[in-house]
UniProtKB/TrEMBL annotation:
GO molecular function: integrin binding
Residue spans of the FG-GAP repeats: 126-187, 198-260
Protein name per the record: Integrin alpha-2 domain-containing protein
Cellular component per GO, a single term: integrin complex
Domain of life: Eukaryota
Length: 266
């Protein structure tokens, strides 16, 4: 069989590929994947630019009074970075091109977000602010509520994993009342200062450790604050079952009266 110079060249290339080790094969495969991804992205961009050029050409050929409406009906860009607002509402089901362009735009936006991990945030006020900080690991700030009591404004802050002085309770959580005019001026609100409850026989009937007290927090107005522990566990009367029923406390009379509500105990 006659082998041309080009065939010999291909044969040499194939023999080189066969002699590659595993690492080089994996590297080649990675390059192919990158190449395929590049081709897909390039194809998407080319398709978008062609549709944009088509809209611009056809709008220039149309009468002046209809050119803007024509471009808008196709939901295309009249220039990079400039969106054309529709002159009148048009159903996307009546214009297949609109659906195609919207899909392409969404795909491009997803690719940009995937590659650059873009997140945009801003501070509302960088000059006039008050900062309150809790103990490390307490999840201080998990819940926040504004409260006003007898003409005084407060910020209520929940710390669901705060370590309190409750005996025998590990990271039961707490709620803090913070001043709105001074930094780090917070004091714990004593919703519950007791440890785990026991029955008449001295056996434990509930579990307050890691109950996440302060995970939910709500001010009910001039006189009343509700704070809950969604992971509070109640032991059944026979003590053979553990029910995560949760519990809530209500503070009244300027944080001097406290009541507990846990209606799902059995």
């Amino acid at each position: 069989m006659h082998i041309t110079s080009k065939s010999r060249l291909y044969a040499v290339r194939f023999s080189q590929v066969d002699s590659m080790n595993v690492d080089s094969s994996m590297e080649t495969e990675g390059k192919l994947v990158d190449r395929s991804r590049y081709v897909v992205e390039t194809t998407i961009l080319k398709g978008l630019f062609r549709k944009v050029s088509y809209a611009e050409r056809t709008s220039r050929n149309a009468p002046q009074k209809d050119s803007t409406q024509h471009t808008a009906q196709n939901s295309l860009s009249s220039g990079l970075g400039q969106a054309v607002d529709c002159v009148q509402p048009i159903s996307i089901f009546k214009n297949p091109m609109t659906t195609n362009v919207q899909l392409i735009v969404h795909v491009i936006a997803a690719l940009v977000a995937l590659y650059f991990h873009v997140t945009i945030g801003f501070n509302v006020d960088t000059e006039n602010f008050i900062r309150h900080r809790g103990a490390p690991g307490s999840m201080f700030g998990f819940s926040v509520a504004e409260h006003r009591d007898r003409g005084t404004s407060w910020v209520l802050v929940g710390a669901p994993e705060a370590q309190t002085s409750q005996p025998g309770v590990r990271r039961g959580g707490a709620v803090y009342r913070c001043d709105v005019s001074r930094d780090d001026a917070c004091q714990e609100v004593p919703f519950d200062v007791t440890g785990n409850n026991n029955n008449s026989e001295g056996r434990q009937i509930d579990l307050k450790s890691e109950q996440w007290f302060g995970a939910t927090l709500q001010s009910s107005g001039e006189d009343g604050v509700v704070a809950c522990a969604p992971r509070y566990v109640w032991f059944s009367q026979s003590l053979n079952r553990r029910d995560p029923v949760g519990t809530c406390y209500v503070a009244r009379n300027s944080f001097r009266e406290y009541s507990e509500y846990s209606p799902c105990r059995t």
